Structure to design on (236 residues):
């Protein structure tokens, strides 16, 4: 059963992150992220947009400083205390992330099975529904290595959606997808936002279709800091 506390605030406090001294991403960064919105992370190539997504998803740890979810300091939370919040997050990798020895369908089932989020029947129904909606059913029994790059990418995106997250984090979600798949993804995000199920979306994308149709706000990585820019749009 899911933790009842919703995610309402995501905050960096004096946060530093670097891969090396020559590859710093954030330095003494304090920033409260826009919520209840579709937010695009922007910046030059190599600025660290994907890294910020991983920090938000707790898949990367800051070198120093603090990351807060609501009023909870992530570094002070045990694995068991953090899990209920991570279950409210869906994360779609730019590349990879699928298990090569599992079929596409089984890859989508894994997060539901591992966390026992619902009954076996509901799991199968949820996965089948998503695969049918995005025209992946005919390759559902295939392994990632035997399908196209577009089908692998789409499966990565659907794995972020299959847990019915409150917070959706997507890294270049439309890269390699055809026009139909992009339209279906935009519609799915809109529908989930309108229903109130999906509350917060953070994504990295230069796709003009995404920027024009659903992005409401932008956060720029500039000078090792995060800065907010409003699009003055309310599209979703």
């Amino acid at each position: 059963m899911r933790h009842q506390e919703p995610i309402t605030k995501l905050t960096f406090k004096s946060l530093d992150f670097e891969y090396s001294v020559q590859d710093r991403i954030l330095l003494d960064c304090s920033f409260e992220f826009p919520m209840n919105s579709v937010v695009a992370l922007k910046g030059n190539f190599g600025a660290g947009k994907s890294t910020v997504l991983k920090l938000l998803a707790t898949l990367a740890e800051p070198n120093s400083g603090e990351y807060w979810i609501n009023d909870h300091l992530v570094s002070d939370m045990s694995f068991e205390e953090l899990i209920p919040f991570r279950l409210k997050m869906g994360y779609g990798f730019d590349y990879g992330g699928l298990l090569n020895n599992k079929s596409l369908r089984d890859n989508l089932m894994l997060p539901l099975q591992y966390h026992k989020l619902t009954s076996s029947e509901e799991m199968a129904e949820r996965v089948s529904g998503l695969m049918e909606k995005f025209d992946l059913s005919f390759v559902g029994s295939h392994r990632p290595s035997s399908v196209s790059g577009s089908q692998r990418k789409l499966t990565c995106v659907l794995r972020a959606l299959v847990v019915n997250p409150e917070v959706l984090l997507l890294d270049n979600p439309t890269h390699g997808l055809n026009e139909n798949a992009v339209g279906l993804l935009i519609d799915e995000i809109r529908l989930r936002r309108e229903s109130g199920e999906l509350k917060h979306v953070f994504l990295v994308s230069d796709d003009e279709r995404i920027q024009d149709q659903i992005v409401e706000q932008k956060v720029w990585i500039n000078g090792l800091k995060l800065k907010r820019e409003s699009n003055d749009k309310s599209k979703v």
Notes: The two ends are 29 Å apart (CA to CA). Residues 79 and 86 are 10 Å apart (CA to CA). Residues 232-236 have pLDDT under 50 and may be disordered.
